[in-house]
Amino acid sequence: SHSKENDGFNADSLPVLSSTTDPKLETELLSPSRYGGIAFKKRNVTVPKPFTFEVREMEVLRKRKLLVEEAEKRAVELANSFRARPMRIGSPDSLPTLPAPSPVRPMPFSFRTDDRIDQYRSRGQGSFASDASTVQRTRVKSPSVVHRPPFVPQVSIRSPLVSDPPKLATAERAVQRFKFDEMLRRRRLSMELKQRAIEASRRAEEEEQVKRLRQELVHKPQPIRRYKTIRTVERKPLTQAKSPNFSLRRASNLP
């Protein structure tokens, strides 16, 4: 809202902001509180200049022509660089002769078993000759077994050994199996007893329900209802309205 002084606002009366390079002066001129209105300044209008695309298009066409000329020149150079070799006249060169391989000639060979047999035989002949020479050098003794008493076995002083029976795993497993079967039997028996108890309780509950249902289905007559006796009211004549006598005069004074 403007004051009364600003009611007759005229834009022509405001000063026009001239081009200046001083930012402080420009801020003062743009301040709306100085002139009591809206500050403004004249804006520069963009003036379009004449233009054309002919130069750019000509440059593009020139570059395209250069590319085409370079491609043609490269194709001509590639075509001129190929040189075909003339065909040979006459028969082609024959393949080089290869030397014939010599036939395989088996070479004599010997097994290692034959060598070991020869070594064993030579060793046996040497040991036989050494044994014969040792027999000739040694002196033969008389047999002492003939003069000694015969062997008599003696009774052992130690108590005979009693072998312990072997502990087989089958016996231990049998005991474990027996315990397991006993535990399984007790568990089955307890489960059977529980099942029987559950069935007995269910049967008793069903019997109780049937009994209750039968009792409910039996017809029971309701007793005669008793009510309070009705009080009889005596018949009386109707009340005759009688006006009150508000006079102070006695009946004797009445005419």
Automatic annotation (TrEMBL):
It comes from the Eukaryota. Residues 1-25, 236-255 are annotated as: Disordered. GO terms for cellular component: cytoskeleton. Keywords: Cytoplasm, Cytoskeleton. It holds the Pfam family TPX2. InterPro entries: TPX2_C. It is found in: Cytoplasm, Cytoskeleton. Residues 167-239 form the TPX2 C-terminal domain. Belongs to the TPX2 family. This is Targeting protein for Xklp2 protein. It comes from Fasciolopsis buskii. The lineage of its organism: Eukaryota, Metazoa, Spiralia, Lophotrochozoa, Platyhelminthes.
